[in-house]
Amino acid sequence: MVAQPGLHDYDLVLWTQLLAETLNAELLDRLQADHPELRYVHGFLFQQLVEGPRAVGEVAANLGVTSQAISKTARELEALGYVERTPAAEDARVRLLALSARGRAAVEAGRAARAR
Fold first, then answer.
1. How much is the pTM?
2. Which of 28, 65, 109, 114 has CB atoms 3.0–4.6 Å from 69's, for a disulfide?
């Protein structure tokens, strides 16, 4: 006779995922107090730009999405003042994305909320 696994044997991954989702939702709620227009999906782009400017194509490859998807999100965040787009010095056809001062402030607000 094979022992049936207990409920707890299946739930560690599920509970970890639920905890992460709960913490992310709480963090976003706190962040939106000062940055109400930010959405969960924006964080993926922010994380790509924390260390400095990156090309749209590089960000897209890193996130496994199309350049068009990154460009759309970047345009939205640029209109909100969180991201800046500039041509690359070596090739003006390549667009670099960077966090603006407001974008860096949002990152710092997120870090402060996580620290609390």
1. 0.78
2. 65
